[in-house]
Amino acid sequence: MAHPPSAIPSEGRAISFGNGKLEVPDQPILPYIEGDGTGPDIWRAAVRVFDAAVDRAYGGKRRVAWMEVFAGQKSFDRFQTWLPEETVEAFREFLVGIKGPLTTPIGGGIRSLNVALRKALDLYVCLRPVRYFDGVPSPVKRPRDVDMVIFRENTEDLYTGIEFEAEGEAATALQGWLQASYPAEFAKIRFPQTSGLGLKPISRQGSERLVRAALRWALENGRRSVTLVHKGNIMKFTEGAFRSWGYALAEREFGGQVYTWTQWERTKADQGEAAADAEQKAALAAGRLLVKDVIADIAFQQTITRAADFDVIATMNLNGDYLSDALAAQVGGIGIAPGGNINFETGAAVFEATHGTAPKYAGQDVVNPGSVILSGEMMFRYLGWPEAAERIVRGMEGAIAARTVTYDFHRLMDDATKVKCSEFGDAVIQHM
């Protein structure tokens, strides 16, 4: 590796991956990026929570060997690069790590450091659990019904970043090719002379591995359903294909463990709706996982009005971006929303804060560290350390139930005690 040997903790060991499983030593080396803006404040609070959870869960038999790596503004200030190759290599070598929020460079270069890291490591699943903690302020009537896990495809769709600026040479050339080769499609562009263009690649391979990961996770964790969210009624060969490929994979690879709405449709066509309903009811009673789908715009409505109907959601990149943040708003906002970026085929995973850097609050020790703390909870569960993860959940539940919260929750709660970022970390530890 290119990074200096002194950066690697001497007392730890690397995680390995074989036969589809992580091999985690008792002292794993975990790379971390503290993040920009409020990142250092959040990290200082969060890492104390992590260490306390591991210590209380395992009585000193396990511990984390933390290894700082660099990206974002701190990296640029020190090394004149936003994302050093050494950082990518560290996550590749040690497999699992965690990061705070990163700034996005202005004026060209990398569009997004977060996206760049995901692509470099092929972290094709963005895993976003969304659940409610009692006492958290919510704009909806029944936030307790929200208990969903989103599998968002992380490498394709419009986030691929293939765009052509309006009236630029590339856009003009592409439109010329469209006009000559596919005139009917070109005619659909309302104002071609002033239109920017973007490409939306959705592949069978990318769709299948995302849906496969969602189905496996749902089955392993005793979930009830997987919902494919798409806009296939309009985008038939991209989002519609995602739906079709997802259903086909579910039946082909998980046949005896799932029941799909496409199976229901076939039985309805052959035997009638009553027979299809009876077949589905029997399959679910036997413990099969229901695989269904919903149009994206309807999903936004129904996850608010009928949240209990949703369990695991599998969707494409842009839909997943919108939907995960919208769901987070129902359960306290993005300030406590955790996330993980995972390649289930290689074991590589980077867990992360899902919010921005909030630079105006940097260094003030006031922001909510909940997003990174709960991302750490996800990380420990992924490592196979559920006892540590449970202590973090217990600590968060206790701190919020005691109404000991940072300013973002304090302004929305009655009779709450406002504490600093570091003090919230203390409260979480006290309630473990």
Short description:
Helices cover 44% and strands 16% of the residues. With 432 residues, the protein is an alpha/beta fold. The protein has 3 domains: 229 residues, Isopropylmalate Dehydrogenase, CATH 3.40.718; 148 residues, Isopropylmalate Dehydrogenase (3-Layer(aba) Sandwich), CATH 3.40.718; 36 residues, no CATH class.
Q: How many structural domains in the coordinates?
A: 3
Strand order of the largest sheet: 4-3-5-15-14-6-7-13-10-12-11
Q: What fraction strand?
A: 15-25%
How would you describe the shape?
globular
Structure class: alpha/beta
Q: Determine the mean pLDDT.
A: 94
Unreliable segments of 5+ consecutive residues? 1-6
Key descriptive features of the protein:
432 residues; alpha/beta; Isopropylmalate Dehydrogenase; 3 domains; two-stranded antiparallel sheet; 16 helices; 44% helix
Describe this structure in words.
This protein is α/β, with parallel strands linked by helices and 432 residues long. Helix content is 44%, strand content 16%. The chain has an eleven-stranded mixed β-sheet with strand order 4-3-5-15-14-6-7-13-10-12-11, with helices on both faces. Helix 1 (39-58) links the parallel strand 3 and strand 4 (65-68). Helix 1 crosses helix 14 (386-401) and helix 1 runs parallel beside helix 16. The two termini are 38 Å apart.
Any chance you could write out the topology, listing elements then pairs?
Layout (H helix, E strand, L loop, with lengths): L15 E3 L2 E3 L5 E5 L5 H20 L6 E4 L3 H8 L5 H10 L1 E4 L13 H8 L4 E7 L15 E7 L9 E2 L4 H13 L1 H4 L10 E2 L5 H17 L4 E6 L8 H16 L3 E3 H11 L1 H13 L3 E7 H10 L6 E4 L1 H14 L7 E5 L6 E5 L16 H14 L2 H16 L2 E2 L1 H4 L6 E2 L2 H10 L2
Helix pairs in contact: 1-13, 1-14, 1-16, 7-8, 9-10, 11-12, 13-14, 14-16
